[in-house]
Amino acid sequence: MTSANTGGVLVSDFDGTMTRYDFYRLVVDELLPPDVPDFWEEFRSGHITHFEALRRYFAAIRSSEADVLAVVARMELDPQLPGAIAALRSAGWRVVVASAGCEWYIRRLIEHAGVDVEVHANPGRFEPGKGLLMEMPADSSPYRSSALGIDKSEVEKRPAEIAVEAANALNCVVALKGPETHIASPDGELYLYDGGDIGLATSGSGDTLAGVVTGLLARGASPLHSAVWGVFLHGAAGNALEKRLGRIGFLARELLDEIPPIMNAF
Questions:
Q1: CA–CA gap between residue 113 and residue 110 (Å, rounded)
Q2: I need a surface site. Which of 47, 52, 101, 250 has the fewest CB within 10 A?
Q3: Does the predicted model carry a pTM greater than 0.70?
Q4: What pLDDT was estimated at residue 84?
Q5: Full 3-state SS string of 134-194
Q6: Comparison of pLDDT for 186 and 142, the residue scoring more
Q7: Most distant CA pair in the chain, distance
Q8: Residue 229: its H or E element
Q9: Going by C-beta distance under 8 Å and a sequence separation of 6 or more, which residues neighbour residue 88?
Q10: Nearest to 226 by CA among 200, 265, 263, 178
Q11: Angle, nearest 10°, between helix axes 65-73 and 103-112?
Q12: What's the CATH number for 11-149?
């Protein structure tokens, strides 16, 4: 989502968005020995960073490279991705992968599909007996973070300011989600949405929101209007499901059926 006077940028984190399954989840389920320590507990206790925890899990793989590549294939890259990227590019959009995962498996999947996109992810290589060795990006990389981005607690303290800072730094419209949603444009406009039910905190809900925003863009709305209306429609859909099904139990895909009636009400 970008300001109206610049080319559009669509950013995806790849695992679970461009693919059906997350590489880390498949690694845990299929490739790790049973005696691997709980590195996430070390992360939660503050002893290691998020990057280091993920690096250690990948390094604990003792399967052959062929077995790991078979798992990569089972991530299931969206078969419609090449066509979608081509359509976005023809409309003037730039597509970027920004992932905390490893470039080693991301590039294999997208290159196998014949897709050429900009990728920002941790470099790495596979070595038999040593696993997938993920490394930090070079110090010169403008995207490098020793701990994986800005501290979450800092974002929670001043979400409106962070949204404005990000919009200015990236020259794009930013929707910063949380109990409240702050939507900022690089032109200095700032919107607050404080509706939406807690049931929206379900797996895939953010992907649904991204799809709604993209759909509004495709209909000709500006990036800012698409973000504002997308956030509102997403929240209103959650409210409608909460009244009918309760706060827990509804699925992200059920949000979509609520969108048309809400739009038709305006």
A1: 5
A2: 47
A3: no
A4: 85
A5: ECCCCCCCCCCCCCCCCCHHHHHHCHHHHHHHHHHHHCECEEECCCCEEEECCCCCEEEEC
A6: 186
A7: 61
A8: helix 223-245
A9: 8, 10, 95
A10: 263
A11: 60
A12: 3.40.50.1000
Residue 243 — φ and ψ, nearest 5°? -70, -35
> Phi then psi for 77, rounded to 5 degrees?
-60, 135
- Minimal CA–CA distance to 13: which of 165, 136, 173, 121? 121
> Which of 9-13, 38-42, 107-111 shows the lowest mean pLDDT across its residues?
9-13
In three-state form (DSSP H/G/I as H, E/B as E, the rest C), the secondary structure along 31-95 is CCCCCCCCHHHHHHCCCCCHHHHHHHHHHCCCCCHHHHHHHHHCCCECCCHHHHHHHHHHCCCEE
Q: How many CA atoms lie within 13 A of 100 on its CB side?
A: 15
What are the phi and psi torsion angles at 81 (to 5°)? Answer: -60, -50
pLDDT single digits (tens) 144-173:
555 443 444 556 678 888 888 888 877 889
End-to-end CA distance of the chain: 23
* Total residue length of the chain: 266
Hey, CA dihedral for 181, 163, 22, 28, is it positive or negative?
A: negative
The pLDDT value recorded for residue 170 is 77
State both tokens at 110. 């997208």
Whether residue 67 is predicted with pLDDT greater than 90 in this model: the reply is yes
